[in-house]
Predict the structure of CAP domain-containing protein.
Amino acid sequence: MMDRRPAAASPDGDRSDRAVIGALLRFFVAVAVVGALALGTAVLAPTVLEDLGVDDTEFTVPDSVDTDSLPSPSSDPPPAGERNPSVTDPADPNESTYQTDVETVDSATVEDFVHAEVNDRRAEHGLEPLEWDGTVASVSRAHSYDMADREYFDHTNPDGQAPMDRFTDVDDYCRGYGENIAQTWVDRPVEDPGTGDTVQHQTAEGLATGLVNQWMNSTPHRQAILEEGNTPAWDRGGVGVYIADDGSVYASHNFCVEW
């Protein structure tokens, strides 16, 4: 019988409280793989630098937009796959958007870029690409929206549902199921967890790269993507992104092994 319990506790110190300056919003990037896996962790999400009251000599939020420093608009992403499957999560919010000085960042485009970039990272390690699954993506998107709407950040929602529970409520063809979640911001300066550099996601393509970098710079998230450790060989996956009105971004990338 498959073990559907969420993953075990995170490494020492990962979930410990940290003092912050001012009104810093703290979130965690976490992975929990349900079914064939028994691992999980949490790492700090990018820090919103302008919320920290950092000294002006270290960081400055400009009063006006320097158009010469703006990134190029997103290219056209390779379409991930079916966006209107026959079975969807009733709580799926569909597309969400946020207007920056560069473009309208659309959640569906971000999802396409994330899916493509994850498969690029897998190809670099000799792995086959994940097939896009529209139903898995719909369940992922509903969870991302729910985290934003009910103001929590976890694999288990306030009703006690874990990732596999949420999926089986909608459909039931995965014998192994996994989930990476992330939180960041669009159009606000944040610290890149991999390099420590200041970045500001103003395009769908840049936001997608930032999300994948968060996961690839955390060992358990990377293991889930690259099927390392105890991770099974995934058949398919789906990405669900929700962009809130305040620019906060919630992303869920779910993986499936079919029966």
